[in-house]
Structure formats: structure tokens, C-alpha cells
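Box 4.2: Ligand-aware structure prediction
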Amino acid sequence: MNVIFLGPPGAGKGTQAVRVCERLGIPQISTGDILRRAMKEGTPTGLAAKSYVDKGELVPDSVVIDIVRERLAQPDCQNGYVLDGFPRTVPQAQALGEFASIDAVVNIEVSDEKLTARLSGRRVCLSCGGTYHVSTLNGATACEKCGAELIQRKDDKAETVLSRLAVYHAQTAPLIDYYAQRGLLKTVDGAQPMDACTAAILEALGEAK
Ligand code: AP5
């Protein structure tokens, strides 16, 4: 099953992709994680992406399209994948349509007010990609999966979150109609608790137990 997770920043795309991928035995492909890894390693792609990511702007289409095209050609994608954070513009969706066949697009809906609270409290592990929220960390500062230090993403600072939401509404939200017109869209309430959200996504994909 080839699936896209669509939704605003902080909707829970990454959190839910980890759970759904584990259940379905397919890889999660997060363009945000790939770009952050490249930035950490200082690769040419990472250096080119840094100024966009830190400001909450979108990295140029050509860069992310090439990243995803190469990634989907890997053998572990043969039985399916979840695309988390791609496509994010209509040109990206059109390009994807030329090299991949998508079975479903899950649109995770959450209000802007809730998103701001989620993102300002998010803490992440840059080592293994673990994602947490301060409200459930009980003061812990290390990743419970690998022990590395948890940090606040630069683009989770309040002013950058507002830019990311504006970018989402202007450039990514049009994909909701784009995929609805193609009969692929499944909308899920992302404001419900995490387990309920996972169950709703699996049901929408026809994978509920
Ligand atoms: P990316 O990393 O993709 O960021 P994003 O889309 O803004 O998404 P987030 O990672 O912020 O949120 P999420 O929906 O995954 O939520 P999460 O599960 O973490 O991209 C970063 C940047 O890279 C972009 O700004 C851009 O510059 C660049 N980029 C990436 N892809 C690109 C592309 N295709 N084109 C161009 N540029 C690109 O959850 C958020 C928080 O909420 C966590 O603390 C979590 O614990 C909590 N939470 C989650 N679900 C729930 C729930 N149900 N109830 C309560 N809390 C919850």
C-alpha cells in the first residue's frame, strides 16, 4: 500500500506514520527527517536546505522531488510506504504522479490553535527521530528509546510556527482538493487521542483489526 499522510505542521503525521508503518511493515519516508539528517551531516543537500527549514519555508520542489524519487527506488519500498510530509505543493504532487502510484491519501485535520500548543511543547531526538511532548515527559530530558538528549527544533519556536502554518495554508492545503478530485482522500480527526487517531487511520485504510 502506497500512502500519503497530509496535514498541517504538528497534526501528528510523524507520530502516526511510525505507528502505522510498524503495523503494516512498510517504511516511513519523512522528507523533514531526511532533510534534518542531511543538515546535521552537512551534506550539500543539507547546506542548501538549512536556510529554508530554519525559517519554516519550503525547500525548493526540485530538491525534495529528487530526494523522494531516489528513496522510492530503494528495495524496501517495493511493498509499500507511507510518505510523511511529501508532497507539499501541487507541482510536487504532479511530479510524484509520474514516478509512483498512490493508493490513499490520509488528511489529518487539527485546528491551528491546537497545533501551536503541540509544536511549542514538542521535543525531539535528533539521533533516532523519537518525538515527545513536554506535557508527558515528566521533566525527562533524554530519549527513552536511545538515551540521546532531547531538543526543541529550531523551527518550533513560536514565530517560525506561525510562518509554517501560513505556508501550509497557502501551498499545501490545496492538495486536499487535488486528491479529493482523484478519489483518494480519507480525512481523519487528528485532535483525538493518539491511539484513537491510529485506529481511525487504520480503519480509513481498510486495515482495522
Ligand atoms: P517536517 O518535519 O515534515 O515538518 P511538518 O510537516 O511541519 O510536520 P511536523 O514534523 O512539524 O509535525 P507532524 O505532523 O509530524 O507532528 P508530530 O507527529 O511531530 O518538515 C520540516 C521542514 O522541512 C519544513 O518546514 C520544510 O522546510 C522542509 N520540508 C519537509 N518536507 C518538504 C517538502 N515536501 N517540500 C518542501 N520542504 C519540505 O506531532 C507534533 C506534536 O504533537 C508532538 O509533540 C506529538 O507528541 C504531539 N501529538 C501528536 N499527535 C497527538 C495527539 N493525537 N494528541 C496530542 N498530542 C499529539
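In the box above, the bound molecule is BIS(adenosine)-5'-pentaphosphate. Residues 158-172 form the longest helix (15 residues).
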